[in-house]
Inverse folding.
């Protein structure tokens, strides 16, 4: 882990370190502006196998196959991408008890200018609750390591998917920059 | 990579039987190759061909069998991985063909079983009955080794090549609308656990 104070370590560096510490080697993603610095750092690190997918559902398919074959995957997406996933979460990931880790950049809240993002954002947490998927919203640099690390560990121990939601409080807050 | 025309076209490929083709594939697997069966009659016939521990039968998430197979192929690069997918399923996730082409796993082969209909829902026509050539789409997506099988012997020759040479492959097979030879077990946890034992991940 980084030696600087948590508030000075950017969230994406903390996330990268937590993924390595938990042997999450495969990263499937659909790009998002907020996730861009994390995606760039993961690409630059040969530890990770980076797979840009055309749709988020593919990422869950890859995570399922890779886990059955013995490797761990995280899928990176934004809120609108998550909204495409309820069927595959229900019929594949939850049905087969697959520990797929989702990291969702929360768009459409706290000052977003796009109405479309704001509307779909309202479906994020209710959908996760309806499906019974463990989920946590990360709002501060000093809680990022704990929430990510513990949530990923629990997902593998309980063979269940989990969602890590990156709030604008974390990713777009001048206080942390 | 430039797309190119398969020497055998969909129009001249023989219409074969899905259960027979599935049995012919499985009969050639001698090294615990993984097989991921797509939703519906595709995995019904895989089930009926003998319940190998290295078979995974996908029950929901229509269209994701190639992505699941890609995940297995990445996790276990020393093992050959086959995916059986229907035409109705394949047109749901055409983007996954580009993902597979880009990742370029040497050990992955997709067998496209194209009967031109959504057989399990009442035989409604898919795009392939009208105009769409999925082997052509696979080639244009960057899967260089995308071919139609002319007949059963030709299919077996492609399988042998996919077992021996670098992929990824997509082998297109035109199939009839005969009913499936069996029905899968419907317990997803049992199916997943058995597959993991078959892949040597679990004891």
């Amino acid at each position: 882990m980084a030696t600087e104070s948590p508030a000075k370590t950017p969230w994406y560096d903390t996330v990268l370190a937590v993924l390595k510490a938990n042997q999450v080697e495969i990263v499937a993603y659909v790009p998002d502006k907020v996730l861009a610095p994390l995606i760039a750092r993961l690409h630059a690190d040969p530890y990770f196998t980076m797979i840009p997918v055309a749709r988020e559902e593919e990422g869950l398919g890859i995570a399922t196959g890779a886990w059955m074959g013995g490797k761990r995957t995280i899928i990176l997406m934004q809120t609108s991408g998550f909204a495409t996933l309820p069927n595959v979460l229900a019929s594949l990931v939850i049905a087969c008890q697959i520990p797929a880790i989702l990291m969702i950049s929360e768009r459409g809240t706290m000052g977003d200018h796009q109405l479309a993002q704001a509307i779909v954002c309202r479906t994020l947490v209710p959908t996760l609750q309806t499906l019974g998927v463990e989920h946590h919203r990360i709002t501060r640099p000093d809680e990022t390591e704990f929430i990510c690390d513990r949530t990923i560990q629990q997902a593998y121990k309980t063979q269940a998917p989990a969602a890590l939601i990156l709030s604008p409080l974390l990713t777009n807050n001048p206080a942390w920059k | 990579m430039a797309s190119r025309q398969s020497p055998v076209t969909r129009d001249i490929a023989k219409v074969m039987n899905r259960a027979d083709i599935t049995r012919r594939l499985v009969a050639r697997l001698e090294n615990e190759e993984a097989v991921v069966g797509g939703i519906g009659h595709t995995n019904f016939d895989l089930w009926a061909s003998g319940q190998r521990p290295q078979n995974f039968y996908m029950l929901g998430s229509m269209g994701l069998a190639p992505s699941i197979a890609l995940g297995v192929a990445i996790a276990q690069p020393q093992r050959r991985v086959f995916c059986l997918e229907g035409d109705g399923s394949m047109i749901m996730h055409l983007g996954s063909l580009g993902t597979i082409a880009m990742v370029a796993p040497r050990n992955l082969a997709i067998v496209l079983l194209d009967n031109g209909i959504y057989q399990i829902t009442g035989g409604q026509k898919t795009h392939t009955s009208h105009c769409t050539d999925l082997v052509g789409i696979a080639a244009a997506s960057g899967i260089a080794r995308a071919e139609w099988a002319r007949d059963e012997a030709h299919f077996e020759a492609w399988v042998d090549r996919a077992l021996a040479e670098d992929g990824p492959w997509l082998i297109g097979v035109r199939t009839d609308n005969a009913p499936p030879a069996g029905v899968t077990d419907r317990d997803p946890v049992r199916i997943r656990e058995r597959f993991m034992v078959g892949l040597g991940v679990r004891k």
